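Structure tokens
________________
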Amino acid sequence: MKIIVFSDLHGNFDNLEKLQNFQNLFFLGDIFTNKDFVRLIGKDFLSFYSKRIDTETLYSRFSIVKGELSQLKMEIPIPTFFKEKDMYILPGNHETKNYYENLKRLPNLHDLHLKKMQINGIEFVGHGGMISPDDI
């Protein structure tokens, strides 16, 4: 059995079409760029980190412009590739619980997080990691 494991797209979806003809795809998380991630989880994230590093460094690290704070906590759409292709998924540290729950609801995505499953006679065990304001 051949499998393809990929992760850390961070918003770079340009080459995903090259995976269209493959089966047994395993995505190990991190769909978004840092900026999209911060927009997704919003001000809770900023308030959590602002206690640890200064605001200017925080804004710079996550490419945030001060005027954009009002846009935080916006919905980030699920990329089309993830709606169409059958694959096994784990959350990365750029997925929130809510976003990952939405991914898991898609009928073509199979959640491996904290699970063990057998695929073509091979046993897989999954453990991803995510940061969420729900946990902060």
